[in-house]
Amino acid sequence: MGLGVAAGLALPAIGGGVASSFGAFNRTVLPRPFEQSLRIPPVLTPTASDADTDYYEVVQMATSQEILPGLRTPIWGYNGTFPGPTIRARSGRRVVVRQTNALPGPASVHLHGGVQPPESDGYPTDLIPSGGTKRYAYPNLHRAATLFYHDHAMDRTGLNVYMGLAGLYLIQDEIDDGLPLPKGDFDVPLIIQDRSFNPDGSFAFSNTDPSNVFSEVGNVILINGVPWPRFEVARRRYRFRILNASGSTSYRLGLSSRQPLIQIATDGGLLDRPVSQQTITLAPAERVEVVIDFGGLSLGTTVELGNSLGSGELARLMRFDVNRTADDDSQIPVLLDPTQPLTENMSLQTRNVVFKPVPVAAFPPFRFAINGELFDPSIVQARVPLGDVEIWTFENRTLGLGPIAAQEHPVHVHLVNFLILDRDGRPPAEYERGWKDTVLVGVNETVRVIARFAPFTGKYVIHCHNLAHEDHSMMANFEVV
Ligand code: C2O
Ligand code: CU
Ligand code: CU
Fold first, then answer.
1. Up-side HSE of residue 294: CA atoms within 13 Å toward CB?
2. pLDDT (tens digit, 9 = 90+) per residue, 347-358?
3. Distance 260 CA to ligand 1 centre (A)
4. pTM of the predicted model, to two decimals?
């Protein structure tokens, strides 16, 4: 299986880190799928609340957690847990999080998908030094959506996230409350991450070598921090909020029962109407919400959530075990939350954003760049007037260096949600026809998106969310002016 993975990604063991990670792979005893139960990350309780704000305290600390049976894995966790605790917010009600960094290195916290002013957006060089504290204020201007918060520190986001610094941030609103979708225990988050382990149980992060600009691929699938879990479900409908929080890996989700995934939301919240999908591709940082109906299955049925982009055990994610009956008063409404689309005629400007390697006098002889620039906090590549609608054209171009320089890029834009207009002139896939903040741009592909740049001015980043690419240095600034 390991060889299959390596060959499939065409990653020769050039970086020392890659080699050691595959070495570790051979020695570590992997857990067997479906032996451990799914865990749900705890919901964080505010330390105080007033008329318009909930206040939270989070300490980023080094601790250890049992992930592989019988072994302790050192982690860096928000409040010492991996994944971090879930923050529940209300649209229009402010959240203030005081983050204390008790880790050995610097940190920065980004609320991914959130609409917040630059000083609370977790800019890569707006660091909380080890021992320091920073207060992040989130106005929660977004409608109901599944967001997540994660580390964003300059050049070490990949490491910090790998060590555990990511958690869910769920915004709820009255429209979502009012829909008859599954609620409470039947509204379940699933955070997908891949990891590799050393024989002592520690994470085998390989990308510490600055020459390794390729990717960070694991050989163990974790859902909510549990390897290939099983989840006992009742014969009824469930809502699943699925986040791909992996550093580099994309998944194509599908059910072994061949039942459809009834998709109800994208990154930016509810779709206008539900759509039935056999498979959904989820690149790093993308989210999707689906309803799965176990109601027609008999007791004792097992259904696997699989990944048709993976081979061997990486083609499996988790298993649902239907073990009881339950009342189900939920429904899948015909209309979810219809929103006003942005249309091409509203756009005042089109910008080309080219994702392409640039040659460097080092090994490997390229770095991933945006419009020919490696990330530099002082270079602003675009100045966008506040409130304007623009079309941005994301072009993935290669350098003729073979497959290592030809990779797909999950492109993420801070501050805004966008709609995908087209992929190489063709309509977007069905599962991505909703509000997005991250879009997968395939090798040599061109994807056009449309967004309104509001409501804050200031400097934000756009970057590849393959964290190995982001750290080396596929990121750029734009400024809303
Ligand atoms: Cu999820 Cu700029 O990141
Ligand atoms: Cu973001
Ligand atoms: Cu990339």
1. 29
2. 999 999 999 999
3. 30
4. 0.94
